[in-house]
Specification:
Strand order of the largest sheet: 3-10-11-21-16-15-14-12-13
Helix content: 25-40%
Radius of gyration: 31 Å
Largest sheet: 9 strands, mixed
Oligomer: single chain
Shape: globular
Number of strands: 29
Strand content: 25-35%
Number of helices: 23
Length: about 675
């Protein structure tokens, strides 16, 4: 797989997005707030189209149970889930102006800039005469553009290795990199403080007394877990099944930047697929088994490799590269969804989380990363959360969050069981008796066997309680309880499901799609085009007159109404003061795929032209036929090639002249 390439002028694209109001900084007239954005009509429609396809692709086709849960979350829920203690990033401060930077992003930014400078220096050296640096060119001196600096080969290779596994460094590791490589704030040149953990959740209080602490949710998952028992009952106790949710989440990012890629309020679409931990097969796995994915495994990253290995999902699961079939199935479905909306396959990869970056609840996780002008960006996470969430919430609330499965044949097995001697156990341990018993009963069989062996050998063992009202070390003796194997017969199996979670960052996907769809006309680089596919296009059809003649007005309104009535968003552009070419051009910037034009032939024979955005070719036909053609093009029942074969092609030389004349 070759290195990704995406040649776009980001500043020109950002100007287009702002001028066409795809999105803009929130509260702009008050100078805005970093990390908060408002979507305009075009961006809102594009986002909704992505969500609509997501719902069809996952919720409808997979028969998922969609819910909508509360944003404000009690502190106890997030304490139990581990978010209060562990949902954090590493930050450091500029020692001069106290500016806060996210530590891993700072290291990444500085080292990447040094490598770019090194590459430029090597190119200049290779093209210079007699090995001397090329002469300085005349012109105004630019203090912000220092001369390129060549690195020693060993240093450059070390930098590349660090960047290949940047996500695997913890706070201490990042601190060592900052000191060793003299990482400074590139905007000021000042040194930075050692990294410290910063919890990313927005805290609030619930109710007027201010005594009930809460947070704005950092993910939609916890609301779904809270309703697991109800969802299982709604699904008639059948397993496996999945819940799904689209909603806003909030993360108090340390240093939000890069537009929509790192924000403080964003839309997520998350799936929680509940599966039997002893059987993580998927009934539809064969449908995706032959899909080839570019996979960058954890071991490859530790070996400082950056080029993914391309392999089928079937091979990846059979070779234990991907942990199980259900995880592999959803990775395949994620790939199909992203490519269906228009993400380029050569700019898409799946990167496995390394051990240090794995979320506290995950046992395996892959990110679908999309290449943009900012580099590789995580847009979808697909994690095996094991049974972590349901278990900790069940333990905290003493409510069962499990599945009871009737067995066709009774299950007979040997189980290691604790039997306390009530005459001694309670009186000796007092308030700790029940927590100690619950702790022992919750131990995996291997650990309980170790306690049994210690009691048999030494006559005593030590139990350490944490997270209870009576934390501490407690000694238990062989006369206080017995731990023996007992024969058990069960007609019903009870288990806590594991969870496979695909989690989609809609804003990031939207921005990546915009970059992948953006181009400029070959004949005029000032004319930008967003080549969204028909499903994604915010507006499907432009309707416009050749001039401001009042005779066209009834045609415009009636045609727009007939398209809108069948679900085809149509936009009228009747600005008579702007040339037809310029109106075509500004709607190309909106990504509108088709344009119906009413000209003076329309008044004679009721015919119109239909223009296709990417080719700029036009066909002519009766108004009735063209409207029907647009409906069919939008639904996908016919293609533009079909239209070219059926309808009269129009000479568009005059359009090209008109467009160039207006720029």
């Amino acid at each position: 797989m070759s290195a990704p390439k995406l040649n776009i002028d980001r500043s020109a694209l950002e100007q287009l997005l702002l001028s066409r109001f795809f999105f803009a900084p929130s509260f702009g007239i008050y100078d805005g707030v970093k990390g908060l954005y408002d979507y305009g009509p075009t961006g809102t429609a594009l986002q909704q189209n992505i969500i609509n396809l997501w719902r069809q692709h996952f919720v409808v086709e997979e028969d998922m149970l969609e819910v909508d849960c509360s944003i404000i979350t009690p502190s106890k829920v997030l304490e139990t889930s581990g978010h209060v203690a562990k949902f954090a990033d590493w930050m450091c401060r500029d020692t001069g102006n106290n500016e806060v930077r996210r530590a891993d992003h700072l290291v990444e930014e500085v080292l990447a800039a040094r490598l770019v400078s090194d590459e430029l220096a090597r190119k200049l050296a290779a093209t210079s005469i007699d090995g001397q640096a090329p002469a300085k060119t005349a012109g105004k001196k630019n203090k912000k553009a220092p001369a390129p600096t060549k690195l020693e080969d060993a240093v450059a290779n070390e930098y590349r290795g660090i960047l290949a596994k940047i996500d695997n460094y913890d706070g201490d590791g990042l601190g060592e990199l900052i000191v060793k490589h003299d990482i400074r704030n590139p905007e000021t040149g000042n040194s930075v403080s050692p990294p410290v953990a910063f919890n990313l959740m927005f805290q609030t209080s619930i109710g007027p007394a201010g005594t009930s602490k809460g947070f704005l949710r950092p993910e939609t998952a916890q609301g779904q877990f809270m309703n697991f028992a109800r969802l299982l009952e709604f699904n008639n106790q059948k397993m496996p099944f999945a819940s799904a949710m689209v909603g806003r989440s909030f993360r108090n990012e340390i240093s939000p930047r890069s537009g929509l890629l790192r924000v403080r309020e964003f839309t997520m679409a998350e799936i929680e697929h509940y599966v039997d931990p002893t059987n993580k097969d998927h009934s539809r796995f064969d449908e995706v088994a032959d899909i080839k994915l570019p996979l960058l495994t954890g071991s490859m990253q530790l070996a400082e490799e950056t080029v993914p290995a391309v392999m089928t999902i079937g091979d990846a699961v059979s070779q234990c590269v991907i942990d199980n079939k259900t995880l592999g199935y959803f990775m395949g479905r994620i790939y199909l969804f992203l490519t269906a909306i228009g993400i380029k396959t050569d700019l898409l990869r799946f990167r496995q989380h390394m051990r240090n970056e794995m979320a506290h609840y995950a046992c395996d996780c892959w990110d679908a990363e999309i290449y943009t002008s900012y580099g590789w960006i995580e847009c979808v996470g697909c994690a095996d959360r094991s049974a972590y969430d349901l278990r900790v919430h069940s333990a905290s609330t003493k409510k069962k969050l499990c599945v009871r499965e009737h067995l066709a044949e009774p299950l007979v097995y040997e189980k290691l069981v604790c039997e306390p001697n009530n005459k001694l156990f309670g009186p000796k341990l007092k308030r700790a008796a029940k927590p100690v018993q619950e702790y022992l009963e919750s131990l995996p069989v291997e650990e309980l066997a170790e306690v049994k062996a210690a009691l048999a050998k030494d006559g005593k063992a030590t139990v350490t309680l944490t997270g209870t009202a009576v934390d501490g070390d407690y000694e238990i003796t062989s006369d206080m309880l017995t731990i023996e194997y007992q024969t058990k017969i069960e007609n019903t199996r009870e288990y806590t499901p594991n969870v496979i979670e695909p989690s989609f960052g809609i804003g990031r996907i939207l921005y990546a799609l915009i970059e992948h769809s953006y181009s400029v006309r070959a004949e005029d680089e000032q004319r930008g085009v967003l080549s969204f596919n028909t499903q994604m296009s915010p507006f499907k059809c432009l309707i416009l007159p050749i001039s401001g003649n009042p005779s066209f007005k009834p045609f415009l309104q009636n045609t727009a109404r007939s398209l809108r009535n069948v679900g085809v968003p149509a936009r009228i552009d009747d600005a008579a003061s702007v040339s037809i070419g310029r109106r075509y051009s500004r709607n190309d910037e909106l990504g509108t795929p088709f344009a119906i034009t009413f000209d003076f032939m329309t008044l004679k024979d009721n015919t119109v032209t239909l223009r296709e955005r990417d080719s700029t070719k036009q066909v002519r036909g009766s108004l009735e036929d063209i409207v029907e053609l647009v409906k069919n093009l939008v639904s996908g029942s016919v293609t533009w090639d079909d239209a070219l074969a059926k309808f009269e092609l129009v000479d568009t030389t005059s359009e090209a002249d008109a467009e160039s004349a207006t720029e």
